[in-house]
Amino acid sequence: MVTCFTRAMKARKQFASDPGRDVKLMLRVKQGNIEAFEAIYNTYKASLGAFFYHLVWDRSRTEDYIQEVFIRLWKAAGNYQPTGKFSTFLFQIAKNFWLNERRKLGHDPARFSLDAKIAGDDGSRFSSQPPSPGPTPSTVVARAELKAQVQEALDSLPEKQSLVFVMSEFQGLKYHEIAEVLDIPIGTVKSRMARAEKLLRKKLSRYLADHQR
User: Fold this and answer.
1) 113 to 55, 125, 185, 210: CA distances (angstroms)
2) pTM beyond 0.85
3) Distance between CA 170 and CA 149 in Å, rounded?
4) Which residue ranges form the domains of the chain, and what is each CATH number?
5) In this predicted model, what pLDDT tens digit does every residue of 4-51 receive, in sequence order?
6) How many CB atoms sit inside 10 A of residue 3's CB?
């Protein structure tokens, strides 16, 4: 499983909110309530951070993207209708923003990985996991090497497969949740995930084999 390759970098699922509460908050935001907007921000900023960080591998750019999505959420509040889960509504905004940004800049991995090679930078700022004890120098090197290989492999995935993989592996979303966000059949989610895992296994197999000798 590809999961074993990414476990050290994986951000656990961040959604700890009550869906009914989210909808009520968003309806208050629709009326211009700043406190409700701040509550939504505090609930979902980590989830958005995990989503963007594992697409761009850049903490600064991730922070910018989080802010942009919440700006768009505020602007879209007037048209909000509680017809589904709020998290789906929010991540549709995030997904559309990411696709537009990626196409605008062009898929040049160097543009999306300004600080990705920093040893020990695993995006923990966007995770709810408690900090772990300080790693040894050899562990830092191993993590940096693994991270570089995983990043390169993920960057090589086609856009549609990359989105599905990040949502599943780094956010812990269920396939039906990914299907709702991307507005595609669940069967398509499964097939894209299978293709992504196959490509990643192929990309990472040589690295893993070299380090098992």
Assistant:
1) 9, 16, 31, 25
2) no
3) 16
4) 16-116 (1.10.1740.10), 135-213 (1.10.10.10)
5) 444 434 444 444 457 789 999 999 999 999 999 999 999 999 989 989
6) 10
